[in-house]
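Lab channel / #folding
Pinned by the channel admin:
"Please post every new chain as: sequence first, then the structure tokens as a reply. Keep commentary short and put observations after the output so the thread stays searchable."

First post following the new format, from NK:
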Amino acid sequence: MDKKRPALVLTPLFGIPDINKGDDLVRVILDSLKVERIELKNNDVIVIAQKIVSKSEGRLRNLKDVSPSREAKRLGEITGKDPRLIELILQESNEVLRIRKGLIIVEHKLGFVCANAGIDHSNVKGTYGDDEDWVLLLPQNPDQSASAIRSGITRLLGIEIGVLIIDSHGRAWRLGTVGVAIGVSGLPALVDLRGVKDLYGFRLRATDVGVADELAAAASLMMGQAAEGTPVIHVRGFPYNLRKSQLNELIRPKELDLFR
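Reply from TO:
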């Protein structure tokens, strides 16, 4: 970490088109940077909303194509949710953790805990039928998606950057959703500050900082949650050294999870 912290500057990239299956996000991002007259530099970070990654990877599903299982129907009766949606949630999850009317909390196959397995309907439009029947799943491997985008940019520009894929999650004990990292490449997800001295010379004993989530939350403010249309954020001045990493750095092991 640089002792002289530079200003952290987040710039939304406007003009990102509606993304469809097979679209080249590397080219889309570079074109948008050019429009904004931003020249990528070493140690910059690109933060990307999960939604456009999922769209480019064809993760749209039509509920009319889903046959709900007996368990999905049972949970649908309890939660009041469409059993077809519940079936997709079950397919995307390792375990159902909590249910009540209007809510289902699961451990996603990717390891983190979230509502509805991250499946969303907002800003989603399908290719046929009723738009209300279309939902969007998370990327199958967001770390791999982030790595592919980072590698594509590095190959074209010859610079080292970080790429972060983010989503909006709720939190235990607090209201409201916040941006969190679900895919990481080239920047630390977690920074261990144990042993670092504080202002008074005491060494920190138990300070791990989820810097990827901190950056995700800041970028989410710039993206917005409705019709803003800014799913990519350019970041300059990230105050930690770039390095190889993965989302698993942020996943609390079950044996250390006191809240399940």
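NK: Helices lie at 25-35, 50-56, 70-79, 83-91, 142-157, 211-223.
TO: also worth noting, The radius of gyration is 19 Å.
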